[in-house]
């Protein structure tokens, strides 16, 4: 915990400020940057390198169950997000319209690299429900 946060919490404990004031003060502080812990000591995994999409489906046909396993390097996704900044605005409007027509509600003008990093941080294990009760889709980082 940094010194500024500690001072705010001490003022709160001493009754010099209210909880609401303390919250506003803490929110106004720049975000803390946690010190990286050594991997051997922390027991945490290394940064994810791949986005994996796995689909298990029971087919009604004679072929039997289907299994799709796609592994996309996160560097490719990051590069793609950075490349969207090079697309002219008129082209982005056309691409967004075509994506919307295809049922993909993504606005490429709003896609930012930091948003992708937040998504990767929160995407530990996500199971997506699909309309078919005999299918399961998993999206996760590894």
Automatic annotation (TrEMBL):
A UniProt-annotated Pfam family: SHOCT-like_DUF2089-C
Domain YvlB/LiaX N-terminal positions: 3-29
Domain of life from the UniProt record: Bacteria
Designated name of the protein: YvlB/LiaX N-terminal domain-containing protein
Organism lineage: Bacteria, Bacillati, Actinomycetota, Actinomycetes, Micromonosporales
